[in-house]
Amino acid sequence: MSRVLARSALLSLLLLVAGCTSASDDKPGTGREAAEGARWQPEPGTDWQWQLSGRLDTSVDVPVYDIDGFDQPADTVAELHDDGRKVICYLSTGAWEDWRPDADEFPKSVIGKGNGWEGEYWLDIRQLDVLEPLMAERIDMCAEKGFDAVEPDNMDGYRNKTGFPLKAADQLRYNRLIARLAHERGLAVGLKNDLDQIPELVDDFDFAVNEQCAQYEECEELTPFIEAGKAVFHVEYEMETADFCPGSRRLELSSLLKKWELGVWREAC
């Protein structure tokens, strides 16, 4: 009789353990799905503020801030988090900037022609052995400061006169590298401009950042991100809001009018 009871007790214990394991696997926020789901992914229409110059104004009532990763300290990111904001770390990953603290770490062999902004020069994105560790260090900085995401700028060098014979395949390889480096550190990452490669890259990125798609009548090309449930953070500089906001609302873009210096001032759709 005692042997039967013992077997019964063992069976009950096994069923209890199995039930707990099953419940844990199905529960949101556990296991592999939880790790993947923990990365932030902003939805279409999410309002935002983009400020890269001047004294940072943290009082704009929006859920997302995009700020300079080098210039802003961890305390600022924490302050924005305390106010319920997500914070994007702006980095230039496709161009060398001569004023950055790590500028001397870039060998001359990877620095090409100017990109039109003072002190900025295109990078030879084919030289992954050189650039990967440098970009990893930069994205490490974003993660260590507590940012939620990365906005990697100058991600379409292959369409510009960089001083290097860059091809579309080179850009795809490099952009995917940047996305992987961000994801490995638990950060979301946005595709900056590079409209022609959106169909091939939409699955690799968590949102898009675009400049002047309305002015150049290109905003429809961003719809793969919207259809995937991913925000498109969009800015115009040389138009009136009345001229682009109706189209932005139709396409569910998160659109702003900004001045070129990307200071505090903004007009949202």
TrEMBL record:
KW Signal (keyword) present: yes
Chain intervals for the UniProt region annotation (Disordered): 23-46
Keywords tagged on the record: Signal
Pfam family, one: Glyco_hydro_114
InterPro entries assigned to the protein according to its UniProt record, in alphabetical order: Aldolase_TIM, GH, GH114_TIM-barrel
Key word Signal present: yes
Signal peptide residues on this chain, from the entry's feature table: 1-23
Compositionally biased spans, kind Basic and acidic residues: 24-36
Domain of life: Bacteria
Domain Glycoside-hydrolase family GH114 TIM-barrel span(s) in chain numbering: 48-262
PROSITE patterns associated with the record: PROKAR_LIPOPROTEIN
Protein name: Endo alpha-1,4 polygalactosaminidase
Organism: Streptomyces capitiformicae
